[in-house]
Write a structure and sequence with these properties.
Number of strands: 5
Structural class: mainly alpha
Distance between the termini: 49 Å
Helix content: 40-55%
Shape: globular
Order of helices and strands: HHEEEEEHHHHHHH
Largest sheet: 3 strands, antiparallel
Strand order of the largest sheet: 1-2-5
Length: about 200
């Protein structure tokens, strides 16, 4: 997927999705909430779809949704490139550019409708030739990847903006065949022939 979107103008949006942000968080993220020098981004205002209309919400989904996350190096690269693209767009369009300060926007500086983000993601997935996954499923990918890398459940929940760790593990973290195979190997190392020969 990441290889396929290398030339996608909105690839930073898909990186944000794979880093676990909700669609509304991606659509509502402003540059004022991004500190590229300190390498942090703060989730705050969101942009959601209600009865087909794009609605701005000043607050995050919940108290736990309001969070400040460190920006990993690959994401920082993409955000810096997006900032540069937007500066070039603004220079080219002049007064016709609508600078709303959105991190994810079209060439005119206007934020995308949340449903448009989902449609663009679907096209990007199809172009990548990978099995169909919804934009929201990227959050599941994020949670599962962190879990498989040994990140503590409480940290995963905090990263995704959940207050209930059990909900995070039940809904957003999925076992993978390789992880299950490693689990089997771990058991094999612990449960030895000697243990089995005791008759217990």
């Amino acid at each position: 997927m990441l290889r396929a979107i290398r030339k996608d103008r909105n690839r930073h949006a898909w990186h944000l999705a794979l880093y676990g942000l909700r669609r509304g968080e991606i659509g509502g993220l402003r540059w004022t909430n991004v500190d590229l020098e300190a390498r942090t981004l703060t989730i705050g205002p969101t942009r959601i779809s209600v009865d087909g209309k794009a609605i701005e919400q000043d607050d995050a989904k919940s108290e736990n949704s309001e969070r400040t996350l460190p920006i990993p190096d690959p994401l920082r690269v993409e955000l810096k490139a997006a900032r540069k693209r937007q500066a070039e767009d603004q220079l080219a369009r002049g007064t016709a550019y609508h600078d709303g300060g959105y991190v994810v926007c079209n060439e005119a500086g206007e934020p995308y409708h949340p449903d448009t983000l989902s449609k663009m993601w679907t096209k990007a997935v199809a172009a990548a030739g990978v099995p169909h996954i919804r934009l929201h499923d990227a959050r599941h990918t994020c949670g599962t990847t962190m879990h498989l890398q040994g990140v503590p459940p409480a940290v995963i929940a905090a990263w995704l903006g959940h207050s209930d760790v059990a909900f995070t593990m039940r809904t957003y973290v999925h076992s993978q065949p390789d992880a299950l195979a490693e689990g089997a190997r771990s058991l094999a190392r612990i449960v030895t022939i000697r243990d089995n020969s005791t008759g217990g």
